[in-house]
Structures are given as structure tokens and as C-alpha cells.
Write a structure and sequence with these properties.
The chain has about 110 residues and is mainly β. Helices cover about 0% and strands about 55% of the residues. The protein has strands spanning about 5, 10-15, 20-25, 35-40, 45-50, 55-60, 65-70, 75-80, 90-100, 100-105, 110-114.
């Protein structure tokens, strides 16, 4: 089973930037959807960004501020988050779909102070 290890969360002031990383163990394909979801306090888990085969899909609330990228040689996906807002505060979860099975990371906390 694929394991996902996230890093890069933390505390940042509004307007600042953070970069998240997620490395997958085992063999995966560049066509396997991989990316990020988040869950804020009292909210449902929502899409942040997912990439597959070179295409990307962003949640409406992060378009133009966040950028997802992928290093297939390293089985790693990155999330560059710019112009952060307090409403971006959430636990960010790495996601991978391989062979129809969804895998999730343990989550990394991102807190944006106003």
C-alpha cells in the first residue's frame, strides 16, 4: 500500500507564502491523480488542487494563489501557496488515487494569522 508523507505546514501571517510537499512510497504513475485537499475548523474536506497526466484542477477559492506541481521521478507533489488568507487555515491532506484506491496522508496544519 502506498504511504504518503507530508511536510511544510506551519504558521504564517496573512499575505505570506508556504510550500507543502508530499512524497509517495512505492510505484506510482504520473497518470495517478495526486494532490491536496483541506479541512478547516467546522468545515467539510474540500479540494485544493489535484494533478494527473499534466493536467491540474484547482478549487475555486485557491485559483490564482496556489500552484500545484509534481516531480514524477521523486513521486512527490508540491503545493506553493501564495497570498495566504486566514480562511486558508486548515489541515491539508495529501491525496493519491492508484488503481481506484484512495490514499491519504496524515495531514499537515496550516495556520494563517490576520
Amino acid at each position: 500500500q502506498v504511504q504518503l508523507v507530508e511536510s511544510g505546514g506551519g504558521l504564517v501571517q496573512a499575505g505570506g507564502s508556504l510550500r507543502l510537499s508530499c512524497a509517495a512510497s512505492g510505484r506510482i504513475s504520473s497518470w495517478n491523480p495526486m494532490g491536496w485537499y483541506r479541512q478547516g475548523p467546522g468545515k467539510q474536506r474540500e479540494l485544493v488542487a489535484v494533478t494527473s497526466g499534466g493536467s491540474t484542477n484547482y478549487g475555486d477559492s485557491v485559483k490564482g494563489r496556489f500552484t500545484i506541481s509534481r516531480d514524477n521521478a521523486k513521486n512527490t507533489v508540491y503545493l506553493q501557496m501564495n497570498s495566504l488568507k486566514p480562511e486558508d487555515t486548515a489541515v491539508y491532506y495529501c491525496y493519491l488515487n492508484s488503481g481506484g484506491r484512495s490514499s491519504w496522508g496524515q495531514g499537515t496544519q496550516v495556520t494563517v494569522s490576520s
